[in-house]
From TrEMBL:
<protein>
    <submittedName>
        <fullName>PEGA domain-containing protein</fullName>
    </submittedName>
</protein>
<feature type="domain" description="PEGA">
    <location>
        <begin position="131"/>
        <end position="191"/>
    </location>
</feature>
<feature type="region of interest" description="Disordered">
    <location>
        <begin position="1"/>
        <end position="26"/>
    </location>
</feature>
<feature type="domain" description="PEGA">
    <location>
        <begin position="195"/>
        <end position="253"/>
    </location>
</feature>
<dbReference type="InterPro" id="IPR042095">
    <property type="entry name" value="SUMF_sf"/>
</dbReference>
<dbReference type="InterPro" id="IPR005532">
    <property type="entry name" value="SUMF_dom"/>
</dbReference>
<feature type="domain" description="PEGA">
    <location>
        <begin position="266"/>
        <end position="332"/>
    </location>
</feature>
<dbReference type="Pfam" id="PF08308">
    <property type="entry name" value="PEGA"/>
</dbReference>
<keyword id="KW-0472">Membrane</keyword>
<dbReference type="InterPro" id="IPR013229">
    <property type="entry name" value="PEGA"/>
</dbReference>
<keyword id="KW-1133">Transmembrane helix</keyword>
<dbReference type="Pfam" id="PF03781">
    <property type="entry name" value="FGE-sulfatase"/>
</dbReference>
<keyword id="KW-0812">Transmembrane</keyword>
<feature type="domain" description="Sulfatase-modifying factor enzyme-like">
    <location>
        <begin position="435"/>
        <end position="686"/>
    </location>
</feature>
<feature type="domain" description="PEGA">
    <location>
        <begin position="337"/>
        <end position="402"/>
    </location>
</feature>
<dbReference type="InterPro" id="IPR016187">
    <property type="entry name" value="CTDL_fold"/>
</dbReference>
<feature type="transmembrane region" description="Helical">
    <location>
        <begin position="34"/>
        <end position="55"/>
    </location>
</feature>
Length: 689
């Protein structure tokens, strides 16, 4: 009843609903799809606007422009001839027919308007080379490609230098422009001959024509000769060769006419025993045997052979044209007597390098110059030249000396340098004190700690300057040198000893003088600094400390303590020291001693020592060669010591005008330094062998 009444009231009652799938919710109300389209369009518009606002205008220009295809890898919009693209890096590729593809990177910056210029490289062209004559070498830009005809050769586009070469033709050269882009081009070359035709005949005919020594035809005939200066010749048996230098211009023929050939000379190969004979032909000197002579054909000619010590040989000879023959002539010796007196008797005798026996003997030798040599181990070899004479007996005496005696005989007792310095020869090895002890005993009054006793031996002969080097002599090495003055007293006069020189300057003076006289320098130098020495060199040097000590102290079998002897002080002027007149300069003097000089004296102002050497113990102290060291006590014997190769300080020997104490005036006194001082100079020495 209720249902029916409800229907009548007009109300609609929904029916009960159950979803097909248990638990599924009932569908919601439906939405229209236009909303989503509008949203998508809005987003797209926003993205487009964002792109347009951030994109930059880029113009890409390609050379050549025709048919070029440009591909930019990345989001961009064409805009006329430009594209719109955001800043960044993009792959860019360009292609065009006939060009190599271009792969590059496009960089777009923040600038509003940008332009990129791209140039494409054309592909190679294809060339065909043809020449007349064929077979020419093709060189493109200096590189050989092959022989013509040459087809389908790939050549890079652009200008090139082309050369074609063929034997006996002038080079063909031309600059060509290759189009490229795989286009085909043909090059044709007409090579011009590089020769000229030369006509030649001879009298008689039938001669072989040569060009540069090679056969090229026979007379009469026409030969093709390359351009330039060429040597052309004619050869015919029995006739002398004919040659001429011909200037040939390509393409210009020449006619040399008829050449009259001269009958060939006869050839005589002449030798003699012994060889070296002088040869004349019809009185004209030709040379010495063995030699080859050319004789006029069919003519009698006179030859003469002569050699010192042999009989003269003469004969007449006739040869036909072109004939060759040999003549060997034995010369007859002329002999002279040579008597040799030889001692010691066991000495060997050589004549011209060949041993002929020992001791005294008489020889018959040809009458020309001979070299006679007499030798014996341990003795100096003697040699002389002698020419024996027929009918005259000659005598030569050979008295051999020991090698040491021979060395001494060859050496001069004194030498004079290019500066006028005198050096005396000393042979300490022959003296009683060839071995001696340097330094001083600890018990000796005035002895200093650096005067350690040190055994040495001197064997090498040496030269030592008799005086100290003067200012005048040193200024030939250094023209502006000034030795200075002390309290108004000059040290700079010409004949005073040079002072204010360092050890380096003294050693460099020695090298300069060695080079001036052509001697091997003793000291080694690098960049103007002395760095060491060569003990085998015979150039000038400073004396070694051992040589100085021997020269100053050795007196027979004794060693001097002072230059004047053993007692102190000296009783008479013997050397230049700090005497009574030097008190205001030195402040200390040798009481009661007067030598007459306030500072240094002219060299050789006092008597020399027993060896003829001046001022060794006074005037100025002297640099020596040795690097300064304090020797070890009880050291072993040293022979010809020279000290170390280099060091910071060097030994100074001898007293000077500024010294007066007992310790300083002793000959064993040692000082050292390296810089110049106003009381230190030097003298020079050198080895004799």
């Amino acid at each position: 009843m209720s249902d029916t009444s409800g229907a009548r009231d007009g109300a609609i009652t929904p029916a009960a609903f159950e979803p097909l799938t248990p638990g599924a919710k009932a569908p919601g109300p439906r939405r229209h799809p236009l909303r989503w389209v509008l949203i998508a369009l809005g987003l797209l518009f926003a993205l487009l606007m964002a792109f347009l606002l951030t994109a930059r205008s880029v113009l890409i220009t390609v050379t050549p422009q025709s048919d070029a295809s440009v591909d930019v890898g990345g989001l961009h919009l064409p805009f006329g001839e430009r594209i719109l693209i955001r800043p960044g890096h993009y792959d860019l590729s360009v292609t065009a027919p006939g060009y190599f593809p271009l792969q590059t990177n496009l960089e777009v910056t923040d600038e509003d308007s940008q332009e990129v210029l791209l140039t494409l490289t054309p592909l190679p062209g294809r060339l065909h080379f043809v020449s007349e004559p064929p077979g020419a070498r093709v060189l493109l830009d200096g590189e050989e490609l092959g022989l013509t005809p040459l087809e389908d050769v790939e050549v890079a586009a652009g200008p090139h230098d082309l050369t074609l070469q063929a034997p006996r033709y002038q080079p063909w050269e031309q600059a060509i422009e290759v189009t490229g882009r795989e286009q085909r081009q043909q090059v044709q070359a007409q090579l011009l001959p590089a020769w000229a035709e030369v006509s030649i005949t001879s009298e008689p005919v039938g001669a072989t024509v040569t060009v540069a020594g090679e056969p090229a035809g026979t007379t009469p005939g026409v030969v093709e000769i390359l351009q330039g200066e060429q040597e052309i010749g004619l050869r015919l048996p029995g006739y002398a060769d004919w040659t001429s230098t011909l200037a040939v211009t390509a393409g210009e023929p020449q006619d040399l006419g008829s050449i009259t050939l001269i009958p060939a000379a006869g050839i005589l190969a002449l030798s003699s025993n012994p060889a070296g004979a002088n040869v004349t032909l019809d009185g004209e000197y030709q040379g010495q045997t063995p030699l080859t002579l050319e004789l006029a054909p069919d003519k009698s000619q006179r030859i003469h052979l002569s050699r010192p010590g042999y009989r003269r040989h003469s004969e007449t000879i006739t040869l036909a044209a072109g004939e060759s023959t040999e003549r060997a002539i034995r010369l007859q010796a002329q002999l002279g007597e040579l008597r040799l007196v030889v001692s010691p008797a066991e000495a060997s005798v050589k004549i011209n390098g060949r041993v002929v026996g020992q001791g005294s003997q008489t020889l018959s030798l040809p009458t020309f110059e001979h070299r006679v040599e007499v030798s014996l181990p341990g003795y100096a070899t003697l040699s002389r030249r002698v020419t024996p004479r027929m009918g005259i007996e000659q005598q030569l005496d050979f008295a051999l000396q020991t090698q040491q005696a021979a060395k001494l005989a060859k050496l001069t007792p004194e030498i004079t340098t290019a500066l006028g310095q005198t050096l005396k020869l000393f042979t300490p090895g022959d003296s009683p004190l060839s071995e001696f002890t340097m330094g001083a005993s600890r018990r000796e009054s005035g002895r200093r700690a650096n005067e350690v006793l040190r055994p040495v031996a001197l064997q090498r002969m040496f030269y030592l300057q008799t005086t100290e080097v003067t200012n005048a002599q040193f200024r030939q090495f250094q023209a502006n040198h000034n030795s200075g003055q002390v309290e108004g007293n000059s040290l700079n006069q010409e004949h005073q000893p040079v002072v204010a020189v360092s050890w380096q300057q003294a050693a460099q003076f020695c090298n300069w003088l060695s080079r001036k006289e052509g001697l091997e320098p003793f000291y080694t130098q690098r960049e103007g600094i002395v760095t060491g020495f060569n003990p085998d060199a015979l150039g000038y040097r400073l004396p070694s400390e051992a040589e100085w000590a021997w020269a100053a102290r050795a007196e027979g079998e004794a060693l001097l303590k002072f230059p004047w002897g053993e007692d102190f002080p000296p009783t008479a002027p013997v050397e230049n020291y700090a005497d009574n007149t030097s008190a205001y300069v030195t402040g200390r003097i040798l009481n009661g001693y007067t030598d007459g000089y306030v500072v240094s004296a002219p060299v050789a102002s006092f008597k020399p020592n027993s060896k003829g050497l001046y001022d060794l113990g006074g005037n100025v102290a002297e640099w020596v060669n040795d690097v300064y060291t304090i020797p070890q006590a009880n050291g072993s014997l040293e022979t010809d010591p020279l000290g170390g190769q280099s060091g910071d300080n060097y030994v100074v020997k001898g007293a000077s005008w500024s010294l007066s104490k007992l310790a300083e005036l002793r000959l064993s006194y040692r000082d050292y330094g390296q810089a110049g001082r106003d009381d230190v100079g030097f003298r020079i020495a050198r080895y004799a062998e």
